[in-house]
């Protein structure tokens, strides 16, 4: 999986690019009418309900823009919030607060929406041993904060990208000439390149599950678009030989039923690609 150092680097890149994109050669609105020495205070106001996420990321943004800004946190990441709640206060240079404002809001609104949806799915799995996973169906350029939001909401991260885990899906299998060939070539590639990466293999039916089980070094089998009965059969076949994951158009109406089939994980792209931003605002006080 991605290391902590790699993850922090991704966050740094998001902040640098976000400020570059938004500020350019200067926040001329603020520069034009607010003295450089002016100081102020603002609050992060919730105008919605759900799970707040991005508080710690907001602190990183403020400190990147101006190390002298002071943040007083009232509500931590992962907490339930409602309309009217104040999450934090920020004090310091008025120009710096305004320069940070849009990136802070864009990030927190998106992250809070993802955390809220993830928490909803995680609650549906309560009482089972099944965990909800995200996918790579993320917004280009801000994957790190979206996956961070999933964890804040009580989910778990799948692989971060193409480089930290091997996932042999239908196209890989077909291009490689079949499941057995794809797994064998992958094991050889990992050995030759001294790579310690877990292997996940997608199965489209029970025959493919049987074939996968005949190969070595498979960490998890992805049961793609299986119905409930077939999922239960696959889980029984696999036993403790490797972990299991269900995926494919699973929603809030079906996720519990798949969990009851005994799979270890359920992955859902909807956690990150189908959410509506939480309504938040930064208001001067």
TrEMBL record:
Signal peptide: none annotated. One of its GO terms (molecular function) is nicotinate-nucleotide diphosphorylase (carboxylating) activity. Pathway: Cofactor biosynthesis; NAD(+) biosynthesis; nicotinate D-ribonucleotide from quinolinate: step 1/1. Its EC number is 2.4.2.19. It is an enzyme of class 2 (transferase). Residues 28-112 form the Quinolinate phosphoribosyl transferase N-terminal domain. Keywords: Glycosyltransferase, Pyridine nucleotide biosynthesis, Transferase. Residues 114-283 form the Quinolinate phosphoribosyl transferase C-terminal domain. Belongs to the NadC/ModD family. PANTHER family: NICOTINATE-NUCLEOTIDE PYROPHOSPHORYLASE [CARBOXYLATING]. Involved in the catabolism of quinolinic acid (QA). NCBIfam families: nadC (TIGR00078). This is nicotinate-nucleotide diphosphorylase (carboxylating). The lineage of its organism: Bacteria, Pseudomonadati, Bacteroidota, Flavobacteriia, Flavobacteriales.
């Amino acid at each position: 999986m991605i290391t902590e150092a790699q993850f922090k680097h991704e966050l740094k890149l998001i902040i640098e690019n976000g400020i570059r994109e938004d500020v350019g050669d200067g926040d001329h609105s603020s520069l034009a009418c607010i003295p450089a020495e002016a100081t102020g205070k603002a609050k992060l106001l919730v105008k919605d309900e759900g799970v707040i996420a991005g508080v710690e990321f907001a602190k990183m943004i403020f400190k990147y823009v101006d190390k002298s800004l002071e943040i007083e946190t009232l509500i931590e990441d992962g907490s339930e919030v409602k309309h009217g709640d104040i999450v934090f206060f920020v004090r310091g240079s008025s120009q710096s607060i305004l320069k940070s404002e849009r990136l802070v809001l864009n990030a927190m609104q998106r992250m809070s929406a993802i955390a809220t949806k993830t928490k909803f799915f995680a609650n549906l799995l309560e009482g089972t041993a099944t965990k909800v996973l995200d996918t790579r169906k993320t917004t280009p350029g801000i994957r790190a904060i979206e996956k961070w939001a999933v964890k804040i909401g009580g989910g778990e991260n799948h692989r971060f990208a193409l480089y930290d885990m091997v996932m042999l899906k239908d196209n890989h299998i077909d291009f490689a000439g079949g499941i057995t060939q794809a797994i064998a070539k992958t094991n050889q590639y990992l050995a030759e390149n001294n790579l310690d990466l877990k292997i996940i293999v997608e199965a489209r039916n029970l025959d493919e599950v049987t074939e996968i089980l005949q190969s070595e070094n498979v960490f998890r089998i992805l049961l793609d678009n299986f119905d409930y009965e077939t999922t239960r059969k696959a889980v029984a076949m696999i036993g403790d030989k490797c972990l299991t994951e269900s995926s494919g158009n699973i929603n809030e109406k079906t996720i519990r039923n798949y969990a009851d089939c005994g799979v270890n994980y359920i992955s859902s792209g909807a956690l990150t690609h189908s959410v509506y931003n939480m309504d938040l605002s930064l208001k001067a006080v």
